[in-house]
Design a protein that fits this description.
- The protein has 421 residues and is mainly α.
- Helices cover 78% and strands 0% of the residues.
- The chain is built from 19 helices and no strands.
């Protein structure tokens, strides 16, 4: 589709929606984990089971939600997904029982993936056209990282406004009351973003018709499955997403190996939040000016080198500078791969019209780390406490980065002769 290019505000709304939809299920529990555990009366395992429920529903939703994105206009699906997710926030704010909470997370797995994920990827691809895929997906992922950081900061500010006693003396009741405001304000913002998307994320009507199918047929699904790029992207995304999951352990590494206190460890996590948008934007702009598939290969090489720095025990408590440089190396590789893996769909000759179907099939395999990565990392850390366990986790990253590198290299070789636009 090379008709009139969608304006910049189209991409801005995609970025805003792309992170807003995950605020209630994920960002709040990441920022307020101790508060969530206390307010809902949960332990870590129970919260983990809520996330697993989400992951299982999401996995099925990837498959069936993909073709839906090829049948309806992206803005309609995205807006409805935001509104339905926000409605779940109203249930969340009542601090329901553990059983209801598991059902709620399953519901969020449906609203954020079945209705949202493939339309977001397709709309981003439409915005990028044939010349700006790197920029489109780099800005999307980097922008989402920044929006997540800003939402987290806003949540902490709201929470602190409603805590009147000394933080160490706060009761569960006070904590719950303050957190309720955080949930309700977040839900309200998600609804507003949905309204903005519905009214302002409009495309040229003729262009919109060009990217919508009246009916998805079995032969079209078979057409997608015959593309080597689809199978390679399954492996590439799976490996890159394992890397993204492993970045969650950096703050724990800071505490267990670098011997940082809780505040210093949290600062490491904050550092990562602001690295992601910078990497996303830089790699997106760079990739569009050269060979986008080549930069996907480079991202896995960087990730592999960073993994070895940690896995071989080079990063120790006596080397703060080496620690931060090594984090930066891993984060650069992981976030660059994450920014580019859907951006190479154009180069891999995946038809724009069938983007949703392709994204659904690719994501079915690519996002399985949502189910296995958390338990695998936990097992490696618990079986070998301290530095050894962390080294095992980074050996896991090294293995997946190497497999991703092979798949990305093959993708590069297979599609490099395509005409560069």
């Amino acid at each position: 589709m090379e008709s009139k290019k969608a304006p910049w505000h189209f991409l801005f709304l995609l970025i805003l929606a792309g992170e807003s939809v995950f605020i209630l299920p994920f960002v709040l529990s990441r920022v307020f984990r101790p508060t969530v555990l206390d307010a809902f009366g949960l332990d870590n395992v129970q919260l983990g089971i809520c996330f697993s429920t989400y992951g299982i529903v999401a996995l099925v939703s990837y498959l069936f939600g993909g073709p839906l994105a090829d049948k309806f206009a992206p803005r309609k699906l995205i807006a409805v997904a935001l509104w339905m997710t926000a409605l779940g926030g109203l249930v969340y704010a009542t601090f329901p029982s553990y059983t209801v909470l598991k059902i709620l997370y399953g519901y969020w797995g449906f609203t954020t993936i079945f209705l949202f994920w493939a339309p977001m990827i397709k709309a981003t691809r439409v915005w990028g056209g044939t010349t700006s895929q790197g920029k489109a997906f780099g800005f999307l992922d980097g922008g989402r990282g920044l929006v997540g950081a800003l939402f987290g900061t806003m949540g902490v500010l709201i929470f602190s406004l409603f805590i009147t006693t000394e933080i160490s003396m706060v009761t569960v009741g006070e904590s719950r009351a303050a957190f309720k405001y955080v949930i309700l304000v977040s839900s309200g913002i998600v609804i507003m973003v949905g309204v903005l998307v519905w009214f302002f994320m409009k495309m040229d009507p003729r262009a919109e018709k060009e990217i919508i199918l009246d009916k998805i047929t079995i032969s079209q699904i078979q057409e997608v499955l015959r593309l080597p790029s689809v199978w390679l992207l399954m492996i590439i995304i799976l490996c890159a997403y394992v890397g993204y999951k492993i970045t969650d352990v950096f703050s724990l590494y800071a505490q267990d190996v670098m011997l940082y206190d809780q505040v210093e460890s949290a600062q490491v996590g904050t550092f990562l939040l602001f690295v992601r948008p910078v990497i996303g934007v830089l790699i997106g702009v760079l990739a569009d000016r050269t060979q986008i598939t080549f930069w996907l290969v480079v991202s896995f090489i960087i990730s592999f080198i960073g993994a070895l720095l940690f896995a071989t025990g080079l990063v120790s408590a006596s080397s703060t500078a080496v620690f931060f440089i090594s984090i930066l190396v891993v984060a650069t590789g992981v976030y660059a791969a994450r920014s580019l893996y859907f951006a190479v769909m154009e180069r891999g000759q995946i038809p724009l019209l069938l983007t949703g179907t392709a994204v659904g099939l690719i994501s079915l395999v690519g996002y399985t780390p949502d189910i296995f990565a958390g338990p695998a990392i936990g097992l490696l850390l618990d079986n070998s406490p301290g530095a050894t366990g962390h080294q095992h986790v980074f050996w896991m990253l090294a293995v997946f980065s190497f497999i991703g590198l092979i798949a990305a290299w093959y993708y590069f070789r297979l599609y490099r002769k395509q005409k560069q636009f």
